[in-house]
């Protein structure tokens, strides 16, 4: 199905020359994030991937095989479920860089049973929302500086969200650690709540009134690493074969990163 759609829509043509622009990709070495990193490098952006595991070097090797040895892509290991580590690593990154055009928040703790991250916070909430939102805060001065440069399109913060936000428990208030760490919640509720926080988070960024866009996007169900992890049942197997691959779904996210600016 995706091969038919590709011949009609040509998603690879919807991205333009990004020479001189800097992209930070949280969760950029795997799944949909990897395809976004790849597409940006192909279009001459400088890409910095931030990931937890050792997937970063593999992603660099794979992308450079296609784009050439001198492509500008690097990987910074960082566990976004550890705020102390995130602060140290991302503050250094902020101080090192001169501009940031696109911050893509595609790191994701998949639907799973309750468990705590390094900071003893529900790991869905801690990684999907808190770690990435904290990163936005740490890197915001860089985005703001970039937004004030002449002849520069408004920087964007793009979140990977999901229609799973409908599964957030009713009466969610994000009011206390006890509420967040209620281990009686189902996997879908925990994941859905983290995705709801992302959608609401756009509203925290917009009142700054900077020339910076913040938006979240549901990419659709993709046959990415996240889906490959849950292939135990026949239903899961069917889902994997019926859903489209990450390259296709990275298109939706790329459009929100590079499409015409919209008022928020
Ligand atoms: N795939 C789908 O069907 C689907 C559907 C709806 C929405 N989405 C949304 O699309 C986005 C991307 O999904 P995906 O399917 O591409 O996910 P994925 O393949 O599971 O990739 C998740 C990424 O997050 C990184 N990550 C996980 N834990 C981390 C941590 N503690 N610190 C830093 N990085 C961490 C992973 O890298 P390491 O393992 O190397 O750390 C990986 O690069 C998510 O926001 C998701 O909600 C996906």
TrEMBL record:
It comes from Apiospora arundinis. Keywords: Oxidoreductase. This is Short-chain dehydrogenase. Belongs to the short-chain dehydrogenases/reductases (SDR) family. InterPro entries: NAD(P)-bd_dom_sf, SDR_fam. The keyword Oxidoreductase applies. Coiled coil: none annotated. The keyword Oxidoreductase applies. The lineage of its organism: Eukaryota, Fungi, Dikarya, Ascomycota, Pezizomycotina.
């Amino acid at each position: 199905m995706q091969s038919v759609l590709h011949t009609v829509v040509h998603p690879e043509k919807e991205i333009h020359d990004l020479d001189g622009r800097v992209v930070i990709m949280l969760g950029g070495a795997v799944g949909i994030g990897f395809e976004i990193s790849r597409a940006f490098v192909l279009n001459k952006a400088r890409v910095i991937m931030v990931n937890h595991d050792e997937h970063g070097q593999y992603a660099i090797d794979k992308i450079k095989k296609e784009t050439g040895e001198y492509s500008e892509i690097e990987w910074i290991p960082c566990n976004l479920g550890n705020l102390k580590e995130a602060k140290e690593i991302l503050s250094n990154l902020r101080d090192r860089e001169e501009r940031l055009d696109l911050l893509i928040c595609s790191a994701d703790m998949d639907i799973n049973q309750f468990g705590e991250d390094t900071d003893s916070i529900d790991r869905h909430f801690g990684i999907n929302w808190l770690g990435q939102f904290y990163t936005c805060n740490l890197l915001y001065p860089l985005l703001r500086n970039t937004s004030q440069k002449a002849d520069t399109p408004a920087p964007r913060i793009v979140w990977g969200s999901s229609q799973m936000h409908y599964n957030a428990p009713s009466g969610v208030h994000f009011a206390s650690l006890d509420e967040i760490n209620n281990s009686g919640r189902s996997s879908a509720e925990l994941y859905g709540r983290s995705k709801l926080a992302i959608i609401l988070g756009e509203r925290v960024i917009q009142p700054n009134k900077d020339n910076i866009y913040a938006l979240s996007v549901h990419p659709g169900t993709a046959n990415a690493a996240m889906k490959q992890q849950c292939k135990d049942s026949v239903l899961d197997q069917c889902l994997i074969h019926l859903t489209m691959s990450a390259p296709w779904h990275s298109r939706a996210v790329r459009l929100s990163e590079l499409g015409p600016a919209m008022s928020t």
